[in-house]
Structures are given as C-alpha cells and as structure tokens.
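Q: I'm a student working through a structural biology exercise. My instructor gave each of us a protein and asked us to get a predicted structure, then write a short paragraph describing it. Mine is Protein kinase domain-containing protein. I'm not confident about reading structure output yet, so if you can add a plain explanation after the tokens, that would really help. Here is the sequence I was given:
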Amino acid sequence: MSYINILEEHPYNSVLNLNNRSATDKEWAERYNFIKADRSRLRTSLDASGALVPDWFPLIPMLSDDATRRQEVSLRTNTRYLYVLDSEEDGVGYFLTEIVSPVLAKFVHLPGITYHSFGSHNGVIVDCAFQWGGRRIAIGEYKRNIINVDAWYNSTFDRIPGQNKLTRELRGYAMEYECPQVFCFDINCLVLLQFRAKKLDDMKDCDVDYWVFPRREAHDTVPGYPLRDALYRLLVQGIRRLQNENLPPPTIGSETSCGRAFYSGEPLWRHADGKKHRFQPDGYERDAEENGQLLWKRDGQWYIDEEGRSLGFSHFGEIALVCFDVRIKLCSSFFAPNFSSLSVMASSHSFEFQWKSQTLCGRGGPICLPSHEYANIIRLSLAGGTIQELPNKIILKMQGERHDLFQTEQMFYEKEKGLQELGLVPQYHGLASIGGTPALVLSDLGGTMIHDNPSLAQDENTLRDKLTELLGAIRRAGVVHEDITVLNVLHCDDGRFRLVDFKEAEMNQSIDEDKIEDEVAVQVSDLVLIMKLRYEARMKLQEWESRNKHATPIQYESLLRHNLSSAVNAVDIRGSVLAKDGFINCVRGS
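A: Happy to help. First, here is the predicted structure for Protein kinase domain-containing protein. I'll explain a few features afterward.
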C-alpha cells in the first residue's frame, strides 16, 4: 500500500540509542569561522502545547510543483525488531533507511536526484551529498550524539568548545563544496543549516539559519517534527538555488532585479529604504507549474508578456521520462524537444551584448541538455545575419562564480590558435559583455555530445581511433585536460570529433611522445568503456520495452521502476552507477 503522506510521519520502527559520543577535532576546521548563535536565526520553537514548530520563512515557500512531487508513490519501510544505534555507521544506516529512502521516493521525476557518499575535496571529506544533474543540492555530515540540543535551542552553542568546533567544521564543508544547504545527523538529532551568503565569497562569515529536530518515533509520547519533511524542504531549497544558478537578473514590469542571492537563487530587489530584499515588486509572486518550471504570477494569475508567453525567472524546466511511450518530455512551456541538435534551448529570446565597442543583438537562450543544464552558456543566432568577423551562430560562455576557471579557459583560447585552425576546438572571437558579465565568444560547432549517441559504440575500433586522434592532438599541443567526459566530446555533422570546455585545462605542459601515448590510451579506454555500457544499457532497455509494450501507462511506469537497475544500470557521465531511484537521465534515443 502507498502512503503519500509519509513525509509527515515519524518512523514506526523502535530505536535503542546507546548514547556513545563522537568528538570533532579536525585540524583543518580551525581555519574557518564558527557559526554565531543568534536567536533570530533559530528557526525551531515550541508552542504552548509543547509541539515543535519550525519556521520555514527563510526558505522559498512550497510551490505548486511540490503538491505533485509530494504525491509520488511512497512505501513504509519494512518492520524490524529494533535499531541498536551504537556506531556512526549504525546511525547512517538508520538515516538512509528511515529518512532518506522515503524522501528520495518523492524525487523520482521532478527532478530525479541521487544520493552520494563523498570523497575528498582539498583534503576536506564530507560524508554525503544529494545531487541533481551532477550538481550539489545539499551536503550532510554524520556524528554520534554530539549536538547539544539545549544549547542550540537557547542559542548559546557558540560558547561551548565542542559545539564551536562542530560549527567550524560544518562551515568548512559548506565553503569547500560551495553548498549553502547543509545538514548534520548525530543519531539523536537532525540540524539543518542554511548559510545566507549573498555571494559565494560571503560564505566565510555570513549569518546562518538553523533548525533543530530531535529524532522521534511514531509511538513516542513526546511531540516532534518529522525528519523526513525537514530533509525534503532542505533539498527543495537546494533545487531552487540551482534552477537560478548563474542566470542574469530578471526584469519584471518596470523593475529590474539588482542581483541574485547565491544561497537561494532568488532575485533581489532594491526597495525604498535603499536595501536589497528578496520581496518581489508589488503584485508579483513566484510560483512553479506542476512540472517544476518557475514562472511569475501577477495578482494570482500567470503573468503573460506582450507576445502571449508566460514569463519565467528560471530558464529551465525539469526533464523527465514519460515512461509509457519512452518520449523525453521537457516539462516547461519554454522548451520543445530537438534531439538532432546539441541542445534543447529556451524559445528564442532576444539577448543584447557588447563586443568590440559594438552593441549586438541575437536570439536564442541558455543550453539545456537532456542530462545536464548550463545556465551560463548561451547559444545565439545573430540578428541581421552574419556580422563582420563573427559567424551567424555563436556561443557566449559567461563567467560564473569561479573567476579563475573562466580566466583559464580564456587563456587557453587566446594561446591555442593551432588547435582552432585544425578545427578540433571552437573558434575564439574575443570577449563580450552581457549586462556587465564577461563572456567568451565562441563559434557554435553544432553536432551532438557522444553521450547522446550510444550507437557510436557499435563500431568500437572507429570510436577508439577518432577519440585517439582528437585527444592525441590536444595533448601534443602541450595541453593536459583531465576533465574529458562523454559530455564535452562532440560528434559533429562532418563525422569528426571535437572537444569543448577547457576551464580546467593545463597549458605549456611537457611533450613526451611515449607518455602521451599512454595517457591518451587511458582516457580513450575510459570513454569507450562508458559508451559501451551506455549502448548495452540502451539495447537492454529496448529489449525490455518490446516485451512490455502492451502494459498500461501505470503498469509500465511501475515495471520500469522495478526493473531499472538490472535493465539499464543508469550509467552516468563518468561510468559510475547512479542511485537506483528509478530515474533515467542518460539513456534515450539517439
């Protein structure tokens, strides 16, 4: 039986907490500021009846798509005799089974998200992360009975050395992983944190919202708040942040936003007091269609522009699989499927940019791929046809939060003219500016990512030869590119492979033919293996679909979810297996 209200339930299984404590004394955490206790940032309180009441105001409110998402099928966890929580691993097992699993059931389609145990990042190791399209929604750390609940409720935790060390560690994770949504579960309690950084650089000393939820079971007489719902809301906040990541400030009515808050993606507006606020202009509000596309409303109605289009402040809807007829559906009024080109793009919008003392216009939009989205990469067709020195179709790659990566890529294109002349990488046409943000002007190579054409693996020798030719030429130019995946190798209309995305490339590297041969062979083998796995997965999926073609849509969806791990294995862009939560974001018709 399904329980659509499972997020509002406490777990039914009994727990014995042996109350063993872990300590936190990580040397690297000393370089980060502790979180200052502030009663105005404590977002949980007790009402007159003793019930725990969270204040969700700092988060973007639940929108229309949440109603759809929360009604996704969920099952209660299996009954068991008893959880005995002794080690940190015991706590992780409990949290994954009783809290994470029911929550992930709500994120099968809108959007499909995955849970990952994490490795090291600059020597800092966080325990886990939730991801959407390869980007972090939220990160989490597991402990044992370390959180002093009373001190957090009284907002005195920053005076206690052990709690002080813990908050330094949690801020360190947020900064290193550039993720403002953080949680900590210590067997006894779940703490949610939101680092209110208007800009990425503000993470080091920004205010922090905090929610404190003691763990409860369904049979407890002491009231509490369901951890499942709390975690769900934190994940939705992370999704909203990514839906607006790196987008330019919107204009609504006569008002233009003065920026976006890094921690939420929300547009900021300058009010009469001269301060920036998250509150939108009078009469306007943000909402989401049931499919997740973020749009503006005015006086309760969807806001329509003069051309009869809904006006959105997010360029992207979520991409979901319509299971019963295996079509890819873009859940957004802005998009239409186009599998023959590299990307699916927003319905054409006018963009103005400055280039070489000229103000130029083009129509297009940010690139949206079936398995990935790039808010800072805009594909344009120039108004009035080809402009002297520029092709008709161009790519504008805007600078993001990491200025150093943008500068690395700019340096690559300015230096590596030979690779451009050979036609192995995009042609570089200098710098442009979009609303004050610098952008690389690149030729549009067209074609498709090899990620989207698994059938290339049918002829393994040809695939291997083409990859070897391309990557060998790049390496012999003195460029070391360690971040080559099936997403940035393009299969172009002339049959050749080309490479894009050089923000992490290293230049002026030594050229040793023997070493180059070995290095390239390793990269090629990795890519070929991923393509073979993707092709085999697609064949298995097609075979399975042919056996179940008479299933009703509901039966089909249920069967697909049940058989996904064995039929598809959902190979991601680096060849690892995605969490088996029933969402295909990498296997589709080529």
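A: Here are two points you could use in your paragraph. The CA atoms of residues 350 and 363 lie 5 Å apart. DSSP finds ten helices and 32 strands in the chain. It's a good idea to check both against the output above yourself.
Q: Great, thank you!
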